[in-house]
Amino acid sequence: NAEYMGNPRVSQVKMKRSRTFEDSLGAPPVRIVIPGDHVGYLIGKGGATMRGVTSETGAGVHVDEVPLENGSKVLTITGPPERREAALERILNMLRKVFKITDDSLPCSVVAFIPGEFAALVIGARGKMVQDINRQSGADVQVAQQRTGQTDRPVTVTGTCRQIVHAVHLIHDVIETHLVKRQRAAGSRDPRDRPVDREHDGRDREY
């Protein structure tokens, strides 16, 4: 059985956001649920661990101050796709270490959030898109049903570290591709073609 590194039964997430790559596109950042009793380990003394992840990957990393109903917290990763993926892989490996998952071939499960408005895109007609994501990544992606009063949709992703990272990448690629098409239809330039200032991209982070 896969070890759960988070809880899928969580409430709506409210978060602060600074100007990032995702903002220029109107796309959501990567958000995953971190068990409350392991948040301190991931942040590190004085935020040292998260600063290390930021320094090595160039991604912005932020942990919400306000916990969810079950005491877990949401960790947000911002930046261009390759930086988000590098940061997510680092964080997942740290979580696997906490849960003593030493065999890289053993699966684990994490819960991510996507805005509910994009859930249908990720699922696809008759589930075809999410099936394609599962096939390409090797992970198992399950999009939760919409709950009353909830704007964010929990997505449980099960697999090895690499499979989870790949699946999350594909999920966000579906969303970002849709948004790019919408911007192009409106005559806007694709923000993914613009150079990114590495220093500015992760400037506003809180630990």
Summarize the SSE layout with pairings:
Elements: E1 3-4, H1 21-25, E2 30-34, H2 39-43, H3 48-57, E3 60-63, E4 73-78, H4 81-98, E5 108-115, H5 119-123, H6 128-137, E6 140-143, E7 152-159, H7 161-185, H8 198-201
Parallel strand pairs: 1-5
Antiparallel strand pairs: 2-4, 3-4, 5-7, 6-7
Helix pairs in contact: 3-4, 4-7, 6-7
Could you characterize the architecture of this molecule?
The protein is of the alpha+beta class and 207 residues long. It is built from eight helices and seven strands. The chain has helices at 21-25, 39-43, 48-57, 81-98, 119-123, 128-137, 161-185, 198-201; strands at residues 3-4, 30-34, 60-63, 73-78, 108-115, 140-143, 152-159. It has a four-stranded mixed β-sheet with strand order 1-5-7-6. The chain has a three-stranded antiparallel β-sheet with strand order 2-4-3. A hairpin with an 8-residue loop joins β6 and β7. α3 (48-57) packs antiparallel against α4, α4 packs antiparallel against α7 and α6 (128-137) packs across α7 (161-185). The longest helix is centred in the C-terminal third of the chain and has 25 residues, at 161-185. The chain starts with a strand and ends in a 6-residue tail after the last helix. Residues 8-18 and 196-207 have low confidence and may be disordered.
